Amino acid sequence: MANQHGDFIWYELLTRDADAAARFYGAVVGWQERPAEGSDRGYRVFGIRGVDVGGLMPFPAGAESAGMRPTWLGYVAVDDVDETASEIVRAGGTQHMPPTDIPGVGRFAMLADPQGVMLYVMRGAMDGTSTAFDQSRPGHCHWNELSTSDPAAALAFYTARFGWTKGGAMPMGEMGDYQFIDHGGRTIGAVMRRTPDGPPPAWTFYFGVEDIDGAAKAVSGNGGTIHYGPAEVPGGMFIVVATDPQGGLFGLVGPRRA
Question: Where is the signal peptide (predicted)?
Answer without folding.
Answer: none
